[in-house]
Design goal:
Shape of chain A: globular
Radius of gyration of chain A: 23 Å
Oligomer: heterodimer
Distance between the termini of chain A: 30 Å
Number of strands of chain A: 1
CATH superfamily of chain B: MetI-like
Largest interface: A-B, 97 and 96 residues
Radius of gyration of chain B: 23 Å
Helix content of chain B: over 70%
Number of domains of chain A: 2
CATH topology of chain B: MetI-like fold
CATH architecture of the largest domain in chain A: Orthogonal Bundle
Order of helices and strands of chain A: HHHHEHHHHHHHHHH
Structural class of chain B: mainly alpha
Strand content of chain B: under 5%
Number of helices of chain B: 12
Largest sheet of chain B: 2 strands, antiparallel
CATH superfamily of the largest domain in chain A: MetI-like
Order of helices and strands of chain B: EHEEHHHHHHHHHHH
Strand content of chain A: under 5%
Helix content of chain A: over 70%
Chain lengths: 266, 287
């Protein structure tokens, strides 16, 4: 019984890795091999698809664009969420509970509902097709998430910490930056990770708000699939490359992921 | 924690309020505006009252996609929640395999949604995909681009692949927070594994599982990119979920009035359901 139960996680991980293996496998094949033979391993191993991506600006700029708006969004979301989360975790004020739920409702808003009005709004303010448009649009769901996660982590810090600091003569800004922020560093890391994650994986808004200059890599992929035939090897290589940034950041927060998903409250 | 009453805390919240209001209230008002007006495409608008709402609420197309959405959401919840709990229960609690398991399991969560769709597309294609080819080789007549049943099977399997790890991670976090003493006490009492699960593990996981259900409900109800890239809503309309239908109406046909009315109804459904989960969660927290 005990040995049998070991198989469950192993089988599950195998199931998770199969589609990824197929994608990576395909990215090293030539188009002829993909369409012609059915091979479990590339027979004519080629790096052609990766070379195309790293030498063609319409491809590699997609990655630069995605990383640019994701970074702006992450910094912005965490920076404004910090004081707000502090307020929610330490003080009672008029309408605090309603405000907290209202913030969460924005996490529930389907991107499909906001696609058209966002297009009109960001065109009207002249930000269409810039990094800022996508970064700001993604704050809609990332700020509420960051506030929730940070509030959870901050509520775990005893209030005596604040009081002791004031007794020691710290002013509020000095206390916040010198003592409080280092104390909840793990929480900030987790919040940043989640902002990164949800901005990185979202496509509908990113695609709607960009045309040429700020086009994300994910949108470049859909364009290639529809216009220049169906170059599966290239598509697979581009897809494989989008997995790498995620894999890197997961490694850093592996022990905190679950706590983040539980909004800092496990 | 006892909180101090302090109205100045509003100043801390102001930046968040300003940004989210810019992003939420202005677009939402645009939607409300369109939902009560009629236009003939020349930028002149007429008051239309609740016409679009009546049209959407009585249209068979909306009922059909709402129905498909409900079936999809409840199917994936019914699979992912028990499966996630089972995997979390069988995962090692200590040792070198724990971080390996966690990182590998979290991997699907960080893949861009259209890549998930594209990956499953080439994985399931009957001629060149590993899954499609295997299923056909062992005797199934499987083709997700032609047969609605196969399209549904693939779509649900893709979502299980994509999101079960979220449930696993949450349930696992709940499980590791149980002190060893609880298990030792259960052992002395001679409790069976089922009793340990029912009276020790399940109560400890209640909170995180509520969050898991809330998140999975919201996100699966809003799902757009993955099924769109996988099946394009087809074959026919068989996998056209609410978001796919909405984008077709709003950005494809540019029918602003019906699209806006549908958006508001859609949003309200999610809001109402999530409010129920949220209230349950907060009540648990108070206890």
């Amino acid at each position: 019984m005990r040995n049998l139960s070991r198989f469950v996680p192993a089988l599950y991980i195998l199931f998770l890795l199969l589609p990824i293996y197929w994608l990576v496998n395909m990215s090293f094949k030539t188009t002829n091999e993909i369409l012609g033979d059915f091979t479990l391993w590339p027979r004519e191993f080629t790096l052609e698809n990766y070379i195309t991506i790293f030498t063609d600006p319409t491809w590699y700029m997609g990655y630069v664009n995605s990383l640019a708006y994701v970074s702006i969004n992450t910094v912005l979301s965490v920076a404004v969420a910090l004081p707000a989360a502090y307020a929610f975790s330490r003080y009672r004020f008029l309408g605090d509970k309603h405000l907290f739920f209202w913030l969460l409702t924005n996490r529930m808003a389907p991107a499909a509902v906001f696609a058209l009005p966002f297009f009109q709004l960001y065109s009207a303010v002249g930000l269409f097709d810039t990094y800022w448009a996508v970064a700001l649009a993604h704050t809609l769901f990332n700020i509420p998430l960051a506030v929730w996660i940070l509030e959870g982590f901050m509520s775990g810090v005893p209030k005596e910490l604040d009081e002791t600091a004031y007794v020691d003569g710290y002013s509020f800004p000095r206390f916040f930056i010198k003592i409080f922020i280092p104390t909840i560093a793990a929480g900030i890391g987790v919040a940043a990770f989640f902002c990164f994650m949800f901005s990185w994986v979202e496509l509908l808004l990113a695609k709607t708000l960009t045309a040429v200059d700020a086009k994300p890599i994910a949108a470049t992929m859909t364009r290639t699939a529809s216009t220049s035939g169906y170059d599966l090897g290239l598509l697979a290589a581009a897809g494989t490359l989008t997995i790498i940034p995620g894999a890197i950041v997961i490694y850093f927060v592996r022990n905190y992921i679950a706590r983040g998903f539980a909004l800092g409250r496990v | 924690m006892n909180k101090i009453e302090n109205q100045k805390a509003w100043f801390f919240v102001l930046p968040v309020l300003a940004l989210v209001a810019f992003n939420a209230i202005i677009p939402l008002m645009t939607v409300v505006n369109y939902s009560v007006q009629e236009t003939f495409g020349d930028n002149t608008f007429f008051w239309a009252g609740v016409m679009w709402f009546e049209q959407v609420l009585t249209s068979e197309r909306f009922h059909a996609s709402l129905g498909r959405q409900m079936i999809f959401t409840f199917s994936i919840l019914a699979i992912e929640i028990p499966l996630g709990v089972l995997i979390a229960l069988t995962m090692p609690r200590k040792g070198p395999w724990v971080p390996v398991c966690l990182v590998l399991m979290a991997l699907p969560l960080l893949i861009p949604w259209n890549v998930v769709g594209a990956m499953w597309n080439i994985f399931a294609l009957p001629d060149i995909g590993l899954l499609g080819r295997t299923l056909n080789a062992i005797g199934f007549d499987y083709n997700f681009t032609r047969q609605p049943g196969d399209a549904w099977f693939t779509m649900i399997l893709m979502d299980v692949w994509h999101w079960t790890s979220l449930v696993v991670l949450l349930a696992y976090a709940g499980l590791v927070s149980i002190p060893d003493a609880y298990y030792q006490a259960a052992k002395i009492d001679g409790a069976k594994p089922l009793a340990i699960f029912r009276y020790i593990q399940l109560p400890k996981m209640k909170r995180v599982l509520t969050i898991a259900i809330l998140l999975r409900f919201m996100d699966s109800f809003m799902i757009y990119t993955e099924p769109f890239v996988l099946t394009g809503g087809g074959p026919g309309n068989s996998t056209t979920l609410l978001s796919i239908d909405l984008v077709k109406i709003a950005l494809g046909q540019f029918d602003l009035g019906p699209a806006a009315a549908m958006s508001l109804i859609y949003f309200l459904i999610i809001l109402a359901m999530s409010w129920v989960f949220y209230t349950v969660m907060m009540r648990n927290e108070a206890n």
